[in-house]
């Protein structure tokens, strides 16, 4: 800890941290029933008490349509709680494992114990879901938690602070609002685990701060998720699902298809089908549609505008959309093709409603292209060829994959969710989230005379022979 830059005052983050730390053993040993009680209270508070306020806050911050707020913010939290409630007893049970013959006389098991005091830093694109989702796992695992939500969605963050105060004592769970500076201050404290959701660049800052205390980390990051469409794909169905996955929340989704890699023979057909589905979902003037969100801040609006201008200056073709309006931070669902390799659209995570299309001649070319980039959070495949699908999966690496659909792998709590290297470290959701916030403590119990005791010193010739026999037979 750099003691010079830490605020030790009465109401500081440091004092809050110490308070949580001093009570963590007590909180961490509460039985199954008490953890369930906390989860139930959180569920009722979100689902009933604050439901409408959540929807309003999301509308103010992101113009998030009501149905999207219900389905992509409230539902994932409630279903994560329900899943934990149904499985927590099993997860908390001691897990017996086999013991080798060389340890005859003993038995072995492991338990999941809480990591301790944890920090959750969350982003703005699904502020409630990506804050309360990991919180459910942290509580299920018996931890104390300090949360730092994003400063980009102030209405949502303020409401989350109120929800946390309603449900928890601050020794148990506390939420600290603030800018990047607040995050930086919190990162100086010796947390036992840090669960960060955000960009790869900030992920690196978080990981190096964690290294100072050897805190474990879960990093849920982003990046460019490719979508491969081969010539055997059902193009209309592919367009229907991709347009939904790409333009929901105005493309501000970590697992949205970042770019399309399509067999050149079906590109025109795909673009036409996308246009049809965009009109179907958002009418031919998406600006007036209640089903279409806005860009979160002026800064992000300008970032996307710069991407588009850069691509156009390099002779890219805008196939669909392209309209923008700075005052309302509106960017129409946009599809761009014939893009130069140097264009920023093909080199930085887009995180907005702009879909670049890159064509390929052979599947090998597409695979080489994917592997020339950072490992993605998601890789989507549209194909009716089992051979092609298998080939793509075997020859690439990604956090998760959907075949003939996109985004929805996020919603299955039985699957581990997370990235690989640049797109993340560690997994979340369901049991994987519980595991991320737990230490697997190994326990061996000696019952009777242990056969290994025959090998204790002094090391005679007989013991040397016994050691050799152990290597050979056990
Ligand atoms: P971000 O990295 O800018 O910010 C995330 C959080 O980190 C915020 O709370 C912010 O206050 C804090 N932060 C920002 N800069 C910091 C710094 N220098 N030091 C300490 N803390 C800092 O990300 P964002 O813009 O909020 O979200 C967009 C990114 O998050 C995209 O890359 C997206 O792909 C990714 N994301 C990933 C997932 C996932 O589950 N894998 C989900 C949503 C978003």
Write up this protein:
The protein is an alpha/beta fold. The chain has 2 domains: 3-221 and 425-440, Aldehyde Dehydrogenase, Chain A, domain 1; 226-418, Aldehyde Dehydrogenase, Chain A, domain 2 (3-Layer(aba) Sandwich), CATH 3.40.309. The protein has helices at 13-28, 32-49, 51-62, 66-92, 129-140, 154-167, 180-186, 200-213, 235-247, 267-282, 298-313, 363-371, 386-395, 430-436, 461-473, and strands spanning 95-97, 106-114, 117-121, 144-148, 173-175, 193-197, 216-220, 226-229, 259-263, 317-320, 324-325, 330-331, 334-337, 354-360, 378-382, 400-403, 424-425, 438-446. The strands form 4 sheets. The chain has a 7-stranded mixed beta sheet, with helices on both faces. Helix 3 runs antiparallel to helix 6, helix 4 packs parallel to helix 5 and helix 5 (129-140) crosses helix 14 (430-436). The longest helix is centred in the first third of the chain and has 27 residues, at 66-92. The radius of gyration is 26 Å and the shape is globular. It starts with 12 loop residues before the first helix and ends with a helix. The mean pLDDT is 96. The site of nicotinamide-adenine-dinucleotide (NAD) has 27 residues, from helix 7 and helix 8.
């Amino acid at each position: 800890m750099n003691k010079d830059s830490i605020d030790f005052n009465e109401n500081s983050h440091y004092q809050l941290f110490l308070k949580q730390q001093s009570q963590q053993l007590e909180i961490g040993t509460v039985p199954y029933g008490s953890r369930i009680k906390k989860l139930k209270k959180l569920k009722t508070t979100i689902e009933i008490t604050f439901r409408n306020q959540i929807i309003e806050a999301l509308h103010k911050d992101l113009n998030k349509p009501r149905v999207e707020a219900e389905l992509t913010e409230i539902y994932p939290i409630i279903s994560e709680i329900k899943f934990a409630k149904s499985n927590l007893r099993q997860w908390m049970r001691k897990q017996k494992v086999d013991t080798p013959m060389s340890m005859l006389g003993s038995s072995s098991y492991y338990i999941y114990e809480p990591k301790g005091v944890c920090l959750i830093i969350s982003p703005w694109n699904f502020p409630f879901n990506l804050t309360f989702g990991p919180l459910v796992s942290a509580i299920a695992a018996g931890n104390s938690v300090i949360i730092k939500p994003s400063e980009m969605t102030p209405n949502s963050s303020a409401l989350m602070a109120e929800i946390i105060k309603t449900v928890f004592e601050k020794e148990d769970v506390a939420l600290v609002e603030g800018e990047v500076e607040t995050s930086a201050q919190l990162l100086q404290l010796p947390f036992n685990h840090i669960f960060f959701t955000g960009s790869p660049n900030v992920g690196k800052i978080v990981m190096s701060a964690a290294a100072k205390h050897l805190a474990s980390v879960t990093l849920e990051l982003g990046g460019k998720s490719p979508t491969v469409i081969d010539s055997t794909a059902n193009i209309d169905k592919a367009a229907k699902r991709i347009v939904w996955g790409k333009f929901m929340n105005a493309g501000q989704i970590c697992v949205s298809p970042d770019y399309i890699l399509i067999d050149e023979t079906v590109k025109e057909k795909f673009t036409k089908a996308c246009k049809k589905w965009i009109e179907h979902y958002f009418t031919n003037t998406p600006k007036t549609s209640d089903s279409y969100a806005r860009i979160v801040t002026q800064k992000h609006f300008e970032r996307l505008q710069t991407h588009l201008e850069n691509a156009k200056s390099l002779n890219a073709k805008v196939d669909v959309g392209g309209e923008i309006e700075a005052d309302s931070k509106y960017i129409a669902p946009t599809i761009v093709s014939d893009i130069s390799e140097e264009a920023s659209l093909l080199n930085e995570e887009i995180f907005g409603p702009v879909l670049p299309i890159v064509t390929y001649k052979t599947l090998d070319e597409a695979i080489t292209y994917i592997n020339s980039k950072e490992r993605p959070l998601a890789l989507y495949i549209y194909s009716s060829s089992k051979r092609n699908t298998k080939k793509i999966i075997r020859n690439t690496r990604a956090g998760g994959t959907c075949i003939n659909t996109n985004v929805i792998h996020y919603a299955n709590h039985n699957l581990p969710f997370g990235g690989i290297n640049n797109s993340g470290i560690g997994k979340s959701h369901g049991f994987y989230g519980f595991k991320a916030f737990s230490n697997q403590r190994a326990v061996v119990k000696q019952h009777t005379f242990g056969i290994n005791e025959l090998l204790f010193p002094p090391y005679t010739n007989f013991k040397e022979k016994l050691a050799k026999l152990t290597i050979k037979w056990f």
